[in-house]
Amino acid sequence: MFTTDDSIRMTEILHINSISDMHDVFGLSKPKHPLVSIIRFKNARIKPEYHHISCSFGMYCITHKNETDGSMTYGRNSYDFQEGSMLFIKPGQILRYDGHESNAEDPGWALLFHPDLIRKCNLGQTIENYSFFYYDITEALHLSDEEKQSLDEIVAKIEREYQQNIDRHSQSLIISNIELLLNYCTRYYDRQFYTRTNLNKDLLAKFELLLRNYYVDNRQLNGGIPSVKYCGKQLHMSPKYLSDLLKKETGKNAKTHIDDFLINKAKNHLLSSSESVSEIAYSLGFEYSQHFSKAFKAKTGMSPREYRRYAESNTKNIF
């Protein structure tokens, strides 16, 4: 069990490693199950001594908030819960509550589960595929009333399962329902991407402009090839969210967009200049020319030299 006192500063990090730890934060009694719990916010509030303290989570935490005042901070971003939203927290993430109060009849819930719960099952291997656990707090999922009801029903099943007598079926049923909830959230995020199509197109245009300006300003000479992390930071979104947004909008993730951009620039250099392959590689931001050649062949099926000869031969045949 962790402890805190008035001497803890906001810059220090409090480690919440277990379900019991989280129950203590909310002033709740010992959990019914050591590895999974549902916290109902109408029955629990974070103790004042835990406000304004940065906390590192040792578990997965999925929260659904309804019309809640106050904010949560993750990194440099802060998100208020006025509209109601879902947040997905993975082990190791650091957050800070800046206080919360709610006048809502049902302010929402938090589903907590420790990695040990799913470690030996299929979900333990596939949970990394649920990329919304890597989104920033400003990229929360907003639900319709119908979607809220669907998830509330799943959460209620999980809650009933661990509150009754545990038997040999309990863990598999709890895990199956957690996986079902995650799959519904994947569907709802797809809907959210779809309904924000105009905004997504604006972001796509900004992403493409960002790549062009990066090379116009010759930033690659010092910074190397632009990474997805760099692009996300410049566009004020997490790398995973940027990649998923582009995937939904264009069918290609952020890394593929960057690779395609580089290959197109490389083709232009190969056909419009007499620069060597090494010179082109370094001008694009590659540290080693062999890495450039390998990436180029993976995309085109030809080495840079083969592509140059092939393109020049076809140009001569045309004229």
What does this molecule look like?
The protein has two domains: 129 residues; 121 residues, Orthogonal Bundle (Arc Repressor Mutant, subunit A). The chain has 13 helices and nine strands. The strands form two sheets. Strands 1-3-8-5-6 form a five-stranded mixed beta sheet. The longest helix is centred in the middle third of the chain and has 26 residues. The protein is elongated and about 75 Å long. The termini are far apart.
Largest sheet: 5 strands, mixed
Order of helices and strands: EHEEEEEEEEHHHHHHHHHHHH
Helix content: 40-55%
Low-confidence runs of at least 5 consecutive residues: 1-10, 74-82
Q: Return Rg in Å.
A: 25 Å
Instruction: Tell me, rounded to a whole number, the average pLDDT.
Output: 85
What is the count of structural domains? 2
Total count of strands: 9
Silhouette: elongated
Estimated structural class:
alpha+beta
User: Number of helical runs?
Assistant: 13
> Separation of termini?
79 Å
Strand order of the largest sheet: 1-3-8-5-6
- Beta strand %: 15-25%
